[in-house]
Structure formats: C-alpha cells, structure tokens
C-alpha cells in the first residue's frame, strides 16, 4: 500500500526496539531501490549468518553507514527536544538482597549458564556441540528468568513498602504472573498497614480492555489508590499514568525498547513532577545476563539511529538496598541521606 502511494510519511516514537533488523521494513517501504533485497540488507547491517534453523539476523554491523542512510529518509526528534517542558527522568539501578538459600540456588544455575555459554562461543568446539549448548542454554535461561523473578518477590515487596510508607504514588512492572501475584499481595499488605482505605490497581494480560481504562481512571483520579501493579508486556504501551512520580521494574525485560515504553507511561505529557525510575536487580540472578544485554542493545540502536553509542539505560547511580531488618534504615531514608536523591 505504501509503495503504491504517491507520498508516504511514517510516524513512530520507537523506530526499533533492539536491533537493526527491525528497521528494514520501514526503510524498504519508502526507499525500495536502496535495498530491494532483505538478504542484502541483513548481510550488510545485521551480521547475517546461517544458523541451525536458518539465517540469523540478530547482530549488527556497519552501524555508522546505516546511520548515514537513515538520515536520508528519517527526521528524528528526541522527546527531550520536542517536549522541553516535560520534567526530568532519573534512572537508578537498585540491588536488592535475595534470601541466602535462593541466592545459592540461582548461583548454581548462573554458573551452569556461563559454562554453556563458553561452549557455545568456543570456535574450537564442534558445531553440533555448540548448537546443543545454545539450545540447552536457552531452556536454562528461561527457567532462570522465571525463578529469579520468583525469588526476588520478597525483597521487592520490602523495597516497595518503603515507597508506600513515604507516600509515593508509583507504577511497578513485572513480567511473570507469579511475580505479579506476589507483588500485588505484598503491596496490598503494606498499603493496609499504612491506611486501611489505600488500595492498588492491577493490569495484566487477563484484564479486559474496558476494565483497563477503568483502572487507569481510578489510578489517575483516586487519591486512595497509590500503586499500579502492571504487566510489562500487557500494560507497557497505550496507557497514560502520569499520576505516578516513580516507576519500579521488579523484573527486567530483554528488549530495551519495551522497558523505555513502559517507563514512559508516567513520563509523558501531563506529568508535573520529575519521574524516578528504579531498576531492581539481584546479583547472582538472571539480571546479571539481562542488564549487560540491555546496555549492548541500546548501544547498537543508539549508533544506528543517532550516530552515537548513547548512554545505555542512563542510570545515574547504583544503589544497594539495605536489608530491612529491625533497626535498619529504610531505602527512602537511604535516599534522603544522599544515596539517590528523590
């Protein structure tokens, strides 16, 4: 349809979520003569190579050249350049502490994952052995992802309780249903301990479309609703939740664009206050694999779209949340003492 039109303008706030392969459809639709073949584009900019299941195009090559090409067809304006009146956004990586037994179990899986990765990346190993290590590694990574989220629930709940005690109205994102269930239970308990009228809302993949808007309206307008518990994939786009002044990621997502869109549920037109973004990470968990992957993908996309490596996730600080034993200062107190500033 686009190719048949006399004129075409493509509008998007997120040209690519993680890799150059996501740009091809847009480029070819308005500049078909530049790259008439997907294979040609993939070989030039996606480090294309044959894998076990066919061509793999998850890589990135010649990003400076791709950036020059994009300048011919793309007018790029960053949100900071257009919405100059929008308050600041501040990102913080916060390390939560896992229970000792859980930490040991996750460490064993992480060590096993690293061993498989070494085999998969070792050119001296046979191709069949490397492929088998990749398949086994993917299965193990999925299990590690789910278990890490489950084991973080207690520490996440303790961290969120300090935000609730401080009166902060915030969004908390997670991926797995079991994690969302645990967070909702912890948040509800903390809210009732502070104010019996305080409540939270929840939006996930099972929430009907009509109810989603009802929950958004409640969060935006009801002062008794302090927290929104949200699925990062089901509620990360299309919602305006500017009543929140903080966004918390209880779990990380593998795709940086998904996380950026999620945090912008609060950081958008209508926001009157600066927005603090909290990435809750646990050392020795799947976060050790996801965080570097996010930084790498953001660097790739930054090079392709803007001609620079960007600032990764733009975290200004790394914070270790203290264990919330009796007599230990809360995380909010830790912030006020200069650890995070707001």
Automatic annotation (TrEMBL):
InterPro entries: Helicase_C-like, P-loop_NTPase, SNF2-like_sf, SNF2/RAD54-like_C, SNF2_N. Keywords: Hydrolase. The keyword ATP-binding does not apply. GO terms for molecular function: ATP binding; hydrolase activity. It holds the Pfam family SNF2-rel_dom. Residues 155-323 form the Helicase C-terminal domain. This is Helicase C-terminal domain-containing protein. It comes from Hemiselmis andersenii (Cryptophyte alga). The lineage of its organism: Eukaryota, Cryptophyceae, Cryptomonadales, Hemiselmidaceae, Hemiselmis.
